[in-house]
């Protein structure tokens, strides 16, 4: 089992690297994304297609995430491009899985990077979420659901960046153990 997990992780990294290198035709965005600790939960083919479609937006995201001062930047929103890509730096306490609620976006892809601490993120296909809690709010690009019939769990920390596409409903900010943990996170919202 451990060998299969290691093999899957290696293949994911190699696939992401190959797709990104070909998608960006040798520019620095390809090298930047190929070297980042993207979670194995990320669909490599979809990521490559997103980068190829909007390389300037992804380049801005990569440049922001490469900043050495992410741990000390003030909390809040940072506009990255004139088209709408932005970053939010936030801090909070994780919640128990029993309080999970799924969110989904239509206009943005999320890059969630936990800078300090660790959390779990539940990821469900958008077709698997049910029990709407709030209708879609176009101005905020968000809708909420109470549950999902199918989901997987992704660890999010500094070594596991979770990229969530509009096809991925997700329940972030969840504790790994019983006790809440203080989290500092940057979420880059890449416009589609």
What fraction, in percent, of the residue positions are helical? 25-40%
User: Spans with pLDDT under 50 lasting ≥5 residues?
Assistant: 1-26
Reported CATH architecture = Sandwich
Kindly state the number of beta strands.
11
CATH topology: Jelly Rolls
Morphology call = globular
* CATH class membership: Mainly Beta
Strand content: 35-45%
Number of helices: 4
Measure the end-to-end span: 37 Å
What is the CA-based Rg, rounded? Answer: 16 Å
Largest sheet: 5 strands, antiparallel
Q: What's the pLDDT, averaged over the residues? A: 86
Strand order of the largest sheet: 1-2-11-4-9
- The CATH superfamily label reads YhcH/YjgK/YiaL
Query: In sequence order, what are the helices and strands, one letter per element?
Result: HHHHEEEEEEEEEEE
Q: What structural class do helix, strand and pairing data support?
A: alpha+beta
Task: Tell me what you see in this structure.
- This protein is α+β, with helices and mostly antiparallel strands and 192 residues long.
- It is 26% helix and 38% strand.
- It contains four helices and eleven strands; from the N terminus they run ααααβββββββββββ.
- The strands form three sheets. Strands 1-2-11-4-9 form a five-stranded antiparallel β-sheet, with helices on one face. It has a three-stranded antiparallel β-sheet with strand order 3-7-6, with no helix packed on it.
- A hairpin with a 6-residue loop joins β1 and β2.
- The chain is globular, with a radius of gyration of 16 Å.
């Amino acid at each position: 089992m451990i060998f299969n997990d290691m093999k899957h992780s290696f293949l994911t990294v190699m696939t992401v690297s190959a797709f990104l290198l070909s998608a960006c035709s040798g520019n620095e965005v390809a090298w930047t994304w190929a070297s980042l600790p993207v979670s194995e939960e990320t669909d490599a083919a979809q990521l490559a297609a997103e980068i190829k479609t909007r390389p300037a937006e992804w380049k801005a995201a990569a440049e922001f995430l490469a900043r050495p001062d992410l741990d000390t930047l003030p909390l809040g929103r940072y506009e990255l491009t004139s088209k709408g890509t932005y970053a939010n730096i936030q801090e909070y306490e994780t919640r128990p899985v029993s309080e999970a609620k799924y969110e989904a976006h239509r206009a943005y892809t999320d890059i969630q990077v936990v800078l300090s601490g660790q959390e779990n993120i539940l990821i469900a296909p958008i077709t698997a979420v049910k029990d709407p809690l709030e209708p879609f709010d176009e101005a905020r690009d968000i809708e909420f659901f109470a549950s999902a019939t199918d989901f997987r769990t992704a660890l999010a920390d500094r070594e596991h960046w979770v990229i969530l596409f509009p096809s991925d409903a997700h329940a972030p900010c969840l504790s790994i153990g019983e006790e809440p943990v203080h989290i500092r996170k940057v979420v880059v919202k890449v416009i589609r």
